[in-house]
Design brief:
alpha+beta; 4-stranded antiparallel sheet; 56% helix; 14 helices; disordered C terminus; 521 residues; 7-stranded mixed sheet
């Protein structure tokens, strides 16, 4: 039955409600009458309504509990979700972007600062993941740049700028260093491809082929193309080089013509026509070289004649005609040398016979002066302003000496001598220590030793003076003294220059202050 007070269901045998303590005696009697008349309609209606109310209240209570639990669970779940979203989504993306986005705009210094800031920060949830992602993304960027260069989408200069900037991030240096090694080879390959293409335009086929062969397989955009271009060169260069060789042959350049044809022979190994053309050029080369060598031999240029044949001997190994001619030229050279020595010796004696000869017993050398000149004293006069003299020692070694000076009414104290040689002024240095002067009979004599002619440059100057048409000596000091060399003075210079050439040349003639070649007149 139901408690009339709290409406709770109570056992029919209870006299009190076990929920609220209400007396149920009267209710129990009513229940008994109910049991006796179970067809009472009002009772059923009341009971049914009470039961439905209880069930409805029970369902509302459950929904309330479920709602409260749901809210509690939501908030409990939201805490870790919020933590996850902040750290693993927002913070993660923000810090990765703080480095990668700066790299993309080439602000490498700022990218490095951001990376270092993350790396050096205290440990937090996604630090390792952020660094890992940044490093992976930038390493991938290096790979993409490398591929772009290989595919001709990025120039090598641009690539180098990228690598230079990315190298500021230390972790990229090993990868970039490795890439630079391989990409340098590809750059060289691309450069060779470009050079080959340029050579092909100029029809320099062999040069083009040599460059195409340097294109490597890793240079994927060019390798296959280079192999096809080699075949194009081989096809096109045959007639071109033969025509070029024929032009060279027409100009008498037989060796160049042969080399041109021979240079392509390896690409056409079974071609008998090329071999025939080569042989024709070699035959012309041999005949032409013989003519040139014989002409040089007739001019007594024996070394040049021998050289002319020796430079083609590699084309004609063991050629008897070349060997014979070279042998003949060498014999002619020896014979000519002997004949020249005999001629020089004869001419030397002839010149000496025209000179005054003296001998210095103290130093053991012979002294030669122009005919009628003293070998013991200076022969400078008013008309003789330059005097050559030759000192010859043992083993035919000789030294040429010039004495220059004048006799006039007054001193000029010259310290320089210039030679006007057919309009060209040549300054001759003088040693002040070798300068002398003397007065007597109202005249002043000044002279100096132009020292020994002991080097090629000085000897060439004397030869130039001796061969000139007109030479004026200019003594410079307080005043000027000019003297035009007489025919006799010029003749003496020529004789002594020629005679000096027949001797071995001393660097200098040894003598000391005890012997004074500039003694007074």
């Amino acid at each position: 039955m139901l408690c009339p007070n709290c409406n709770s269901e109570v056992n029919n045998d209870y006299h009190k409600c076990n929920y609220c303590g209400c007396d149920l005696s009267s209710s129990l009697e009513n229940d008994n009458s109910y049991n006796q008349d179970t067809t009472n309609e009002s009772y059923y209606s009341k009971y049914f309504v009470n039961t439905q109310q209880i069930k409805t209240q029970s369902r509302k209570s459950k929904k309330m509990i479920i709602a409260i639990v749901s809210v509690v669970l939501f908030f409990l779940a939201a805490i870790p979700l919020t933590y996850y979203l902040y750290n693993y989504v927002y913070l993660y993306n923000k810090q990765v972007s703080s480095v990668t986005e700066k790299v993309e705009v080439k602000n490498f210094n700022a990218a490095k600062i951001s990376y270092d800031k993350i790396k050096n920060s205290k440990p937090y949830a996604v630090k390792t993941k952020v660094l890992s992602t940044v490093e992976k993304n930038l390493k991938d960027r290096v790979e993409v740049l490398s591929k772009s260069f290989i595919d001709d989408k990025v120039s090598y200069d641009e690539l180098e700028k990228w690598f230079e900037g990315l190298s500021k991030l230390v972790f990229l240096k090993p990868l970039i260093s490795e890439k630079e090694k391989s990409l340098t080879k590809i750059k060289d390959s691309k450069d060779n491809m470009a050079a080959a293409e340029e050579a092909l335009k100029e029809k320099e086929y062999l040069e083009a082929i040599s460059k195409y062969k340097l294109v490597i397989k890793d240079d994927s955009t060019n390798y296959k193309k280079s192999q096809n271009k080699i075949n194009v060169c081989v096809k096109d260069m045959y007639d071109y080089y033969i025509d070029e060789a024929e032009k060279m042959s027409s100009d008498g350049k037989y060796e160049d013509a042969y080399k041109t044809v021979h240079s392509i022979e390896s690409y056409y190994k079974e071609d008998t026509r090329l071999k025939s053309i080569e042989d024709g050029y070699l035959k012309k080369l041999l005949n032409d070289s013989f003519k040139k060598a014989d002409a040089l031999n007739s001019k007594k240029k024996f070394d040049d004649a021998i050289s002319e044949l020796e430079k083609i001997s590699s084309y004609f190994p063991n050629n008897a005609a070349i060997t014979k001619k070279v042998s003949t030229y060498r014999k002619n050279k020896i014979d000519a040398k002997v004949a020249e020595q005999e001629r020089q010796e004869k001419r030397k004696k002839e010149i000496i016979s025209k000179l005054t000869k003296g001998h210095d017993s103290q130093y053991g050398f012979n002294i030669y002066s122009p005919k009628g000149y003293s070998t013991k004293s200076v022969n400078i006069t008013e008309n003789i302003n330059i005097e050559p003299r030759l000192y010859v020692g043992v083993d035919d070694y000789a030294a040429l000496m010039l004495i220059a000076g004048f006799i006039r009414d007054s001193h000029i104290d010259f310290n320089k001598i210039n030679f006007d040689v057919d309009g060209e002024i040549i300054e001759w240095p003088i040693g002040i220590e070798n300068k002398k002067s003397q007065t007597g009979y109202d005249k002043v004599a000044e002279w100096c030793l132009l020292y020994y002619i002991h080097n090629t440059e000085m000897f060439d100057t004397v030869k130039k003076i001796a061969k000139a048409k007109k030479v004026t000596m200019i003594f410079e000091g307080k005043k000027l003294h000019k003297h035009i060399l007489t025919a006799k003075e010029m003749e003496n210079l020529k004789l002594f220059v020629e005679l000096y050439g027949y001797y071995n040349h001393l660097d200098d003639l040894n003598h000391n202050g005890d012997y004074d070649v500039t003694e007074a007149i």
